[in-house]
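Minutes, project check-in
Item: structure for the 230-residue chain
Input as provided by the requester:
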Amino acid sequence: QSKNVAGPNGYEFGYYCTQEWANALNEMLNDPAVNKCNDQEAIHRLLAQVAYETGYYSTVFQPIDGGAGLIHMIPGNWPVNARDMDSIFPGSDYESSVASMGENFFKTPQYGWKSVAAWFKRTNRVIGGCNKDLFDESFDEQTRCILSRVVDRSEAFNIVGACLAEAPPTTTAASTTISTTTTTTTTSMATTAAPGVSCVAAVNAVGATNARCQAACELLTIGSWPCAGQ
């Protein structure tokens, strides 16, 4: 069965799990200021939070509120985040770049993951009671210091965990490199796809493919965007 399902209004979709984005993630994790390349639990939490924030790596800009980023930030927090990037990763004048590029700054691999690192290490202080290094915090505390309250993000956590189990890290002489896998957004429905059911990418589902949808099929709720063509 195939379905023609349009994406939700108020979002811009794109490709945020390409090799270029994966390389930028590895560079960020391997930077001495972050140093989490070999911490699989921290990586699991990080990727799950960003999966939830971006609709499973499909969007980093929402025209509906003007917010942007792998960690969704309102425009008022962009300069704060960029200054924190300058402190953590000095020498690139990120504050000037975000001022001139606007939301496109966060659509760029060389900036996107370092922006996440800055939020995790410093920018989260804009939320009351935070100001923590979120790389070392629990998944629920990360959620609170991203959203300002705790909501259930266990679905993203479980899907990312399953993907990481199927694609274990590759160890190199210099560092541990993480392979990322694009998964899919889901809606709040109680029934998941049964074993043997085919999951097909919905029409206009940018970044989703039949192969990617099928890989996560048994983890998805029926009718999940962008794998709604089950």
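Outcome recorded: The chain has a mean pLDDT of 81.
No further action items on this chain.
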